[in-house]
Amino acid sequence: MHAVAATALLLTGGLLVVAATLGIGVGLAVGVGARRALAPGTRRALAASLALVSLGAAMAVGWTLSGRYLGPLDYLGQVYGLLVPLQAVLAVAGALGGAR
User: Fold this and answer.
1) Which of 11, 39, 51, 89 has the highest Cβ tally under 10 A?
2) Which contacts of 30-33 are long-range, i.e. CB under 8 A and separated by 24 or more positions?
3) Each residue's pLDDT tens digit, 14-51
4) CB proximity list for 58: less than 8 A, separation 6 or greater
5) For residues 10 and 3, what is the distance between their CA atoms, to the nearest angstrom?
6) Interhelix angle for 40-65 vs 83-98, to 10°?
């Protein structure tokens, strides 16, 4: 969803909503799947880590689909700028909230 919104639809600010939604989805999945198997702190750390990995993978797909004319960090900096760390913060916040 992130890669489609980023490359096909050329949304930028909307990616903040997509990142938060991604984090919530990952958090809910981890929360439901590991409710009894993991302690709450471990469950939240796992959800936050998986949300960041998912976001990174989505950004890598977006970079690949853009033609890879720039390096990955240059691409992210020039196309999205400060939206990249904001997306990471929102994805982690969503994951922590969803993994309760």
Assistant:
1) 51
2) 30/95, 30/98, 30/99, 31/98, 31/99, 31/100
3) 788 889 999 999 999 999 998 889 999 999 999 999 99
4) 1, 2, 3, 6, 22
5) 10
6) 140
Distances from the Cα of 60 to the Cα of 1, 35, 42, 91, 95, angstroms: 13, 30, 27, 16, 20
Domain ranges for the chain: 2-98
Q: Are 43 and 100 in contact (CB under 8 A)?
A: no
Length of the chain: 100
Indicate the pTM of the whole model: 0.84
Place of tokens 């909230």: 97
- Look up tokens 């984090």; give the residue: 23
